[in-house]
Amino acid sequence: MNYPYGQPGNPGYGGYPPQGYAQQGFPPRKPGGGTAITAGVLAAVHGVLAVAVMVVGIIGIRKDLADNFGDGVKDDIVALSISTLIAAVFLSGAILLFSRRRAGQIIVITATSLIMVGGAGWVIFATLVLGAAKGAADFVDFMVLVVFVLELLTLCMATMSSTGRWIEARTARAHGAGMYSPQPQYPYYGP
Questions:
Q1: Alpha-carbon Rg of the chain, whole angstroms?
Q2: Is residue 15 part of a domain?
Q3: What's the CA gap between 41 and 47, in Å, rounded?
Q4: Does a structural domain hold residue 5?
Q5: Where does the chain have alpha helices with state H?
Q6: Taking the CB of residue 96, how many other CB atoms lie within 10 A of it?
């Protein structure tokens, strides 16, 4: 068989480039970050919802103090403290995730997992202790189910491998478009 530029695989005659030279081609694709941004948005939504619960808790505390209900204030303060903690954790996790920090991913994963376990515990407690006959327990169960779905979606988005790749791409070396190692000039041995 006749090869006009030499035998394939023989670097001296133009077959394949010698070792140490990069192939000319396209730069590697950068991860888009759709799953990470979605997880961050959902975590921020959860944090904002926790802030809304805090506002309702503050209004409840003021009302209980105005009506001289001493026992209700203790419960409201506990609920307000929990809502404040949840809001702070989710909002800081969302901000760190938007900043492409691994700590943000870990915070969001941990917080959503704990909320899901706590929600399941509340459903069991409400069913066994409060009883299924109470309308308030049914409403709270419905709200826990909504939060559970939100948390499950957030957890899935935060744990996906594309989220990790998007975070890691922040520290990866930037490759400019069209940048490649130049190919050596091979001699032309014409007919």
A1: 29
A2: no
A3: 10
A4: no
A5: 34-66, 70-98, 102-125, 135-159, 161-168
A6: 20
> Can you tell me the distance from the alpha carbon of 64 to that of 73, in angstroms, rounded to the nearest whole number?
6
Side chain identity, residue 2 = N
Q: Which domain holds residue 139?
A: 34-168
C-alpha closest to that of 111 among 81, 134, 79, 88: 88
Threshold 0.90, pTM exceeds:
no
Coil vs helix vs strand at 120:
helix
Helix 161-168 and helix 102-125: axis angle, to 10°? Answer: 150
One pLDDT digit (tens) per residue for the chain, 191 residues: 565 665 555 555 555 555 555 555 666 677 788 999 999 999 999 999 989 988 888 887 888 777 776 666 777 788 888 889 999 999 999 999 999 999 999 999 999 999 889 878 877 777 777 665 556 666 666 777 777 888 899 999 999 999 999 998 887 655 444 455 555 566 656 55
**19 is a domain residue:** no
CA distance 45 to 140: 19
What single-letter DSSP state applies at residue 7?
-
User: How far is 102 from 158, CA to CA, in rounded Å?
Assistant: 10
* Calpha distance 143→154 (Å, rounded): 16
Closest of 100, 108, 183 to residue 152, by C-alpha = 108
Task: State how many domains the chain has.
Answer: 1
Residue 162 lies in a domain: yes
